[in-house]
Specification:
Elements lengths: L1 H18 L6 H10 L6 H31 L1 H7 L3 E2 L4 E2 L8 H11 L8 H21 L14 H43 L10
Antiparallel strand pairs: 1-2
Helix pairs in contact: 2-7, 3-5, 3-6, 3-7, 4-5
Length: 206
């Protein structure tokens, strides 16, 4: 009767859950293993290079805004540098540590073009802004329901976990190389900027 019917339904539901296994499709697993191979490949190197360029351009754009702000504050920095501080009334501009802001502000005002965007920076920023606008436009598309639930169910979470386990060796390699290349690129460009601004000591035979 009803008990046997419900038992049959429970068995059918259990069978359906077994069929919906969280394991990745074989083709998806092979694709992830290929793209994120721990020994690296051309696609990984391309992603790393483009990522480094994008982050470098974004950080440089922020640095330029800060540099211009320092330059615009030069009149104020020049005024406060003569303000007496300490028990002996020494000018602030002569006190190590306290004179960092006035000095940087005056240097920025005298070397406004020492830090600037290259053609590559401008191209990267234009691409980033374009991608951002396309992403925002897609997120605000009329076809998307505002109240549509975004939480992942258990099966989706397990599939994402399985995908991450396959890709994690390659992702870890990419993250390490990305950080090394980014630090090296930022250091080289900072040295070039400081050299143009006259903040690095030149060799004696120069």
């Amino acid at each position: 009767g009803f008990v046997s019917f419900t038992d049959t339904m429970d068995a059918s539901e259990a069978a359906g859950l077994v069929q919906q296994s969280p394991e990745l499709d074989a083709s998806a697993r092979d694709l992830l293993a290929l793209l994120f191979a721990p020994e690296g490949n051309y696609i990984q190197d391309l992603i790393i290079e483009e990522g480094v360029r994008a982050v470098d351009s974004l950080s440089r754009d922020a640095l330029i805004q800060m540099w211009r702000s320092l330059a615009s504050a030069a009149p104020f920095a020049a005024a406060v540098s003569f303000a007496p501080v300490g028990p002996f009334g020494s000018p602030l501009g002569l006190v190590p540590g306290l004179n960092t802001f006035p000095l940087l502000s005056l240097i920025a005002a005298q070397n406004a073009s020492a830090i600037d965007l290259s053609y590559e920076d401008k191209r990267n920023l234009a691409i980033i802004r374009k991608l951002t606008s396309l992403f925002l436009a897609g997120a605000q598309a009329p076809g998307l329901k505002k109240n549509q639930p975004t939480a992942l169910n258990r099966q989706q979470v397990e599939q994402l976990t399985a995908a991450f386990q396959v890709a994690s060796p390659g992702v870890q390699r990419m993250a390490n190389i990305f950080s090394e290349k980014l630090v090296q690129r930022l250091r080289e460009r900072a040295q070039a900027d400081f050299s143009r601004a006259g903040m690095l000591a030149r060799p004696a035979n120069a």
